[in-house]
Amino acid sequence: MSESMIEKAAAVKAKVEKLTGVKGMNDLLPPESANVEWLESRVRSLMARYAYRNIRTPIVERTPVFVRGLGEVTDIVEKEMYSFEDKLNGDSLTLRPEATAGVVRAVVEHSMLYDGGKRLYYVGPMFRHERPQRGRYRQFDQIGAEALGFSGPEVDAELILLAVALWKDVGLTDIRLELNSLGQPQERLSHRQALIAHFELHEDLLDEDAKRRLYTNPLRILDTKNPAMQGLVESAPRPLDYLGESSLAHFNSLKLILDANGVDYTVNPRLVRGMDYYNLTVFEFTTDRLGSQGTVCAGGRYDYLVEQLGGKPAPAVGWALGVDRVLELIREQGLAPTVSPLDAYAIVPDVAFLPQVLKVLQVLRTAGVNIQMHTSSVDGMGSMKSQFKKADSSGARYALVFGLDEVAVNQVTVKSLRDGIGQQVTHSLLDIAGWATTLQSTN
Ligand code: ATP
Ligand code: MG
Q1: Is 126 touching ligand 1 by the criterion CB < 6 Å?
Q2: pLDDT tens digits, residue range 195-205?
Q3: How far, in Å, is the centroid of ligand 1 from the Cα of 217?
Q4: Looking at ligand 1, which residue's alpha carbon is closest to its atom 19?
Q5: Is the CB of 237 under 6 A from ligand 1?
Q6: Distance from first CA to last CA of the chain, Å, rounded?
Q7: Which residue has the higher pLDDT, 275 or 2?
Q8: Once rounded to an integer, what is the mean pLDDT over residues 58-78?
Q9: Is 310 exposed, middle or buried (0-12, 13-18, 19+ CB in 10 A)?
Q10: 112 in helix, strand or coil?
């Protein structure tokens, strides 16, 4: 290198500082990422069995979708949304903090309910500006199920049974179900008045948050985490006591179906949810294994959201599951399969063989074999010993050795790296797909 080049290189080195990701937005790296792929594949198969179909809405929506959908006086809308101005036209846009409002927006926009109800599910990232901590991130994945256009309690039950089936399918235990009913708008109004009266009587005991919410969203006060207010919340009027006949009937039918299915639950009369759109049934699945962020899945009915977002009135119910929290349980309990996905590692002594080797690997990969190929460096392919070392640490079951003598007569040696370690057989390259078939049958 000339002196000026060295100087330039040094200057670049001094300037380039390492870039890091955004706080609270995490990278999910292999092999850990295999767990989420596994979970998602279990979910997709389960959703199909319950007749839920995938919907993919954009990550960005117009801000009013959330402000109108979730309610102005909610944690999410007040302080957790990533909103920004579209520089082209000045529109306010927001990274979705949850997916229900966007799904309803799409359902209304595409008149999806014109020929009856729809069962939908989604998988994807959500964004909330929260204080990052264990189980609480600024970008996190949710899996959600939404049933739109159905009013009966059997659909609330179906969704709960779907979640219960998922816990069972992936092997999760120690997950509790809590249920409550918030009632219909008229009932909620009477409860709200009683609630305000109750809190007014004890105004000196309210914290700042509660004072601010007293007349805008008193129900949310029930959800306070402030220990000093627990007594006041305990003695507050409960939504369940304000339910009319038909709301009670809905709640009782749901419980009856869950009982008949052997689903354990507790009725928690203080359970409220963070968004305003819920009515009647609300529920949460929680665990003690995750410290204070123990809610893994939550949902309920939102019979008025469709019309609130401009659609023809239609009932709806759904839930959302926190993938990061479920993954932590899966990791902690070692539930995901850990076997290496690699069937074979290709050992290639000479770069001159690469064109032919890649052709053979292409045939094998087309036939469904997972193969990692050894790659060259400036010094060539490296010693056989170092290639075998790589093959061993790759976790592959077999080494495919494209040795000089073998390739000369159109053959490859297949050497076992695990079961029956060291055993080897030669295969004709002309019928290599035949080997793939025997491999698949031993998988
Ligand atoms: P929390 O009371 O824990 O704040 P929430 O009421 O805001 O939860 P929902 O909006 O109902 O939660 O979201 C459903 C699920 O998504 C939660 O039960 C949780 O598992 C997960 N979740 C919510 N916020 C986060 C986050 N910031 N990071 C990771 N997971 C989250
Ligand atoms: Mg929250």
Answers
A1: no
A2: 999 999 998 88
A3: 19
A4: 322
A5: no
A6: 53
A7: 275
A8: 94
A9: exposed
A10: coil
Q: Is the CB of 345 under 6 A from ligand 1?
A: no
pLDDT tens for residues 8-48? Answer: 766 666 678 999 999 999 999 998 999 999 999 999 999 99
For 123-168, the pLDDT digits (tens) are 999 999 999 999 999 999 999 999 999 999 999 999 999 999 999 9
pTM for the full predicted model: 0.91
Which ligand is nearest the CA of 97, by number?
1
Q: Helix, strand, coil proportions of the chain in percent (round to 5)?
A: 45, 20, 35
Closest by CA position to 123, among listed 71, 31, 213, 53: 53
Whether 247 is in the pocket of ligand 1, judged by its Cβ within 6 Å, is: no
Domains and CATH numbers, the chain: 32-183+243-332 (3.30.930.10), 344-442 (3.40.50.800)
Do the beta carbons of residue 331 and residue 383 sit within 8 Å?
A: no
In DSSP terms, which residues pair with 412 in a beta bridge? 427
Residue 326 Cα: closest atom of ligand 1:
20
